Amino acid sequence: MRIHKKANGQKDGKISRRDFLSGAAATAAAFTIVPQAVLGQGGFVAPSNRINIAVIGTGGKGIRNIKSLFKHSDTHITDLCDVNKVSDYSAFYYRGTAGLEPAKECVETHYAKKRASGTYKGCATHIDFREMLDKENGIDAVMIATPDHIHAVATMAAIKKGKHVYCEKPLTHSVYEARMVTEAARKAGVATQMGNQGHSSEDIRLMCEWIWDGAIGPVREVHVWSDEGYFSGDLKDRPKETPPIHPGLNWDLWLGPASCRPYHSAYAPFSWRGWWDFGGGAIGDLGCHNLDSPFWALKLGHPAEVEASSVKFNSEVIPSGNIMRYKFPARDDMPPVELTWYDGGLRPPRPEGLEKGRKMGNNGVIFIGDKGVIKCGGWSKSPRIIPETKMKAYKRPPRTLPRSNGHYRDWLDACKGGVPASSNFDCAGPLTEMALLGNVALRTGKKLHWDGNNMKATNAPEADKYIRPPYRDGWIL
Questions:
Q1: Which CATH class is domain 199-408+429-458?
Q2: 170: cis peptide before it, omega within 30°?
């Protein structure tokens, strides 16, 4: 929760709107008689209880997030920021158009419907999030849905201004960035959440409770895979052509901390994930979804060793098929475990007990324990002990984990001084570190001996440049 000193917001015994939304005012508010309308009953939310949110990144996912926020009456989107005015997403799975102008139209149309006049022109737009945050404009929180290489610099800029942050997965583009924003958020006391929505599901909680109950005994082996999230197409090397920059796109700001290169549609608006400078491939995309359940249920923390192999790749383009192996030491009462990640159509062996005709699926996780196997889909969906006869015979334990009110709702409540959202950066940061470490091993071509506390591959000093890639002049974390 955000912390504000009394001198900055509370005077003469009054609680300011800014303090009301922070944990600093939570205790005082608890002893204040508040009218029902202020609490949002009857559909009305007083401005003092409303969370003003700026959205950084209004591509396909950014607009989806905006529409999700519309479902919560105590939110108000005040500012939008994107380096691109409009993009055609018709060939991409988001469809339609995206960018600053479509997002502004979406927001203003939504709020206009709630006004007697039928008009609303109150949404500010920006192309540089740093300038937006410097202006303040009464922003309480930011939601970030940019390409991966902008996540950390935008998140850190918001944290330094005392803003609550929701950032899409992966939390950052590098291991070092993940550590730094996690520590900064903790120190600042802001409410945070990463956009791995499966972490708020009932399914992942069931998975944890079953494993902690000993449903399949000690787990020593895990297999995780995904065929989605990485669109490699015909990417082979940096394009030699230098076409005109797409109209309405500020290419220099799009590059952000990445090194300069000429514009090409092979990078933006949606193929950036296949380039090392901008994305993290399949594990950088789906890793924070599908690795989430083993990371939580098995209390994984830092691996001791990581190695990776793949189809052919180079220093520019991320390979379209990878296998990454992580070895974790014993934790508490849990034995050492080996976790293997597969993408690009690669698969683990079918687990023993999986009935004939049951498909592995495009995304999934398999836990192999001493006494059995649990399989689930991507995002921890539909966990089942296999074969089904064992699932039906299993006596489920009582619930021990708090249930979620929804991924966005939990973050919004945390912004108001409630309990931390379950995928706050103290959880999301280490998960992101683990996922991205697989790419470090792949790029070095070595089995890494990992000193997690110090972020060092003790046998591969050349890994440092991938753990903490350099920034272009003018950009800081």
A1: alpha beta
A2: yes
- Side chain identity at 284, as an amino acid letter? G
Q: In 150-304, at which residue ranges do the beta strands (DSSP E only) sit?
A: 164-167, 192-194, 219-226
The per-residue pLDDT for 121 is: 84
pLDDT tens for residues 5-27? 333 333 333 444 555 454 433 43
State both tokens at 343: 């993408």
Rounded distance between C-alpha atoms, residue 353 and residue 278, angstroms: 41
The more confident residue out of 466 and 116 is: 466
By CB atoms closer than 10 A (0-12, 13-18, 19+), residue 346 is middle
The average pLDDT across 226-247 equals 81
How far is it between the farthest Cα atoms of the chain? 72
Domain residue spans of the chain: 6-197+412-423, 199-408+429-458
Pair of tokens at residue 38: 């202020």
Q: Are strands 141-144 and 51-56 parallel, antiparallel or unpaired?
A: parallel
Q: In degrees rounded to 5, what are phi and psi of residue 414?
A: -65, -35
Decide if 133 contacts 161 (C-beta within 8 A).
Answer: yes
Radius of gyration of the chain (CA): 23
Distance of alpha carbon 335 from the chain centroid: 29
Question: Which residues is 363 bridged to in the sheet?
Answer: 226
Tokens of 428: 């999301």
What are 54-106's pLDDT values in tens digits? 999 999 999 999 999 999 999 999 999 999 999 888 777 677 899 999 999 99
- CA angle centred on 282, ends 85 and 451, rounded to 5°: 115
Nearest to 73 by CA among 107, 111, 40: 40
| pLDDT at res. 2 | 39
SS3 of residue 53 by DSSP: strand
Taking the C-alpha atoms of residue 90 and residue 32, their distance in angstroms, rounded to an integer, is 51
The two tokens of residue 347 are 């698969």
pLDDT for the residue numbered 8: 34
Identity at 403, one-letter amino acid code: R
Which top CATH class is 6-197+412-423? alpha beta
| Tokens encoding 468 | 């903490």
**DSSP E strand boundaries for 163-283:** 164-167, 192-194, 219-226
Give 440-457 pLDDT, tens digit per residue: 999 999 999 999 999 999
